[in-house]
Amino acid sequence: MTNRQRTLMALVAAALAVGALWLWRLPTAEMCSRSGRMVDPTRRHCVALDGSYVQLREHVEMHATEVGWVLLLIGSTLFLLWLVARRVRLGRSNE
Asked: In this structure, is residue 19 part of a structural domain?
C-alpha cells in the first residue's frame, strides 16, 4: 500500500469519525421532548422555546442513508466502467 493510499484512508476514516460524532450529539425526538423542547410537525427539527431549532438525529440519518445509496450507485457504475474499459484494452492488445 502506498503512502497516498494510506493518507486517503486516514482522511476518510477521520471524516467518518467527525460525522459520527456530529450525528451522535444531535437529539432524538424522545430526547427533545424530555428536555422540554418541542418536535416540529414535520419531525425534522427540535424547537426550543426561544424559537431556535436543531435537526433531529432521525432526520439526518434518513438523509445520510440516501447519500449512502447514491455513493454506492456511483461507485458501482465507476467500477463497471473500469471493468469494461479494461476488457476493451485487453481485447485490443490480443489482436
From this structure: no
